[in-house]
């Protein structure tokens, strides 16, 4: 028998989903159908609006290539990526045994679309941005566990745009990696390298997600930051950034990735001797940041 009650329709769909054998898939789909139907009723969605949404998602898929992931950009600009990152970090960490003084692990943030696997392995202290536009910056610090013990041999996989906010992957015909490297901490858990002080930059705005962001009346920018994946056996890997304090857009990152604990004051220096003994002919910056990794759940 047919009913004209929209709630009856929701119940009928949920009954069909209720037979899903996989319990997690059943939960995900039950909640999705419930919330989707609620949304449609709440905003009194018209057929034209629903078709516009379908066309938008179709265009989002059609914009994806092997170098561009418009769905991730959609997830990022709706804050969904950050929600998932925050939940995952909390879930993966084992609780610290009683009596052990612990500081929380470094906060994670979005990976973004410009990670490129297989960055060159470099020595500690190297310049990983040779020939890249931008003001030189010396990055250094330590990696410890959440109890403050130094972690040796931790892998840091690092990437950033140049000093004008452009990533190597965005430049047509640029097939070589720039401003990327993998380093390992020394026996005291220390790391150090030279790169550039990163600039703010806009996310790609020439696709459907750009049109959506523009529709919000929102700027498209991310504040200056450098990306890190920090990983060590027995610990929860972190994908995170260091953000440049006072960078434009630090209060309004288009992908909601900023955490106060990740903001670093870059110190300006006149030409002269750098902390690693290098003689710098040009002004340069230093940035110090310590990473903390939580023990992984067994
Ligand atoms: C990035 O930081 O590389 C990024 C993150 C999310 C969207 C676009 C870019
Ligand atoms: Fe970035």
UniProtKB/TrEMBL annotation:
Residues annotated as domain Intradiol ring-cleavage dioxygenases: 111-293
Superkingdom: Bacteria
Residue spans crossing the bilayer: none
Keywords recorded for this protein, A-Z: Dioxygenase, Iron, Metal-binding, Oxidoreductase
MF term (GO), any: ferric iron binding
Signal peptide segment: none
GO terms classed as biological process: catechol-containing compound metabolic process
InterPro entries: Catechol_dOase_N, Intradiol_dOase_C, Intradiol_dOase_core, Intradiol_RC_Dioxygenase
One Pfam assignment: Dioxygenase_N
Required cofactor(s): Fe(3+)
Catechol dioxygenase N-terminal domain ranges (all copies): 22-93
Family indicated by similarity: Belongs to the intradiol ring-cleavage dioxygenase family.
PANTHER family registered for this protein in UniProt: DIOXYGENASE, PUTATIVE (AFU_ORTHOLOGUE AFUA_2G02910)-RELATED (PTHR33711), INTRADIOL RING-CLEAVAGE DIOXYGENASES DOMAIN-CONTAINING PROTEIN-RELATED (PTHR33711:SF7)
Protein name (Swiss-Prot/TrEMBL): Hydroxyquinol 1,2-dioxygenase
Organism: Bordetella genomosp. 11
């Amino acid at each position: 028998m047919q009913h004209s009650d929209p709630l009856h329709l929701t119940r009928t769909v949920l009954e069909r989903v209720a037979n899903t054998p996989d319990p997690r898939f059943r939960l995900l789909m039950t909640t999705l159908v419930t919330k989707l139907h609620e949304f449609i009723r709440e905003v009194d969605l018209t057929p034209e609006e629903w078709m516009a949404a379908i066309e938008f998602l179709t265009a989002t898929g059609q914009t994806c290539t092997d170098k561009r992931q418009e769905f991730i950009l959609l997830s990022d600009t709706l804050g969904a990526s950050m929600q998932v990152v925050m939940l995952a970090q909390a879930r993966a960490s084992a609780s610290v045994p009683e009596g052990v003084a612990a500081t929380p692990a470094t906060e994670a943030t979005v990976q973004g679309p410009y990670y490129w696997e297989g960055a060159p392995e470099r020595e500690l202290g190297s310049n990983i941005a040779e020939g890249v536009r931008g003001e030189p910056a010396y990055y250094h610090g330590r990696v410890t566990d959440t109890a403050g013990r130094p972690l040796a041999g931790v892998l840091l996989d690092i990437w950033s745009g140049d000093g004008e906010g452009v990533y190597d992957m965005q430049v047509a015909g640029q097939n070589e990696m720039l401003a990327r490297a993998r380093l390992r901490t020394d026996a005291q858990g220390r790391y150090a390298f030279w790169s550039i002080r990163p600039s703010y930059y806009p996310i790609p705005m020439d696709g459907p997600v750009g049109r959506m962001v523009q529709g919000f009346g929102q700027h498209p920018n991310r504040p200056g930051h450098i990306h890190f994946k920090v990983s060590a056996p027995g610990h929860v890997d972190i994908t995170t950034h260091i953000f440049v304090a006072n960078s434009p857009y630090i209060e309004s990152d288009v992908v909601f990735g900023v955490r106060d604990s990740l903001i670093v004051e870059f110190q300006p220096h006149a030409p002269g001797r750098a902390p690693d003994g290098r003689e710098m002919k040009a002004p340069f910056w230093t940035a110090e940041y310590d990473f903390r990794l939580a023990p992984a759940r067994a």
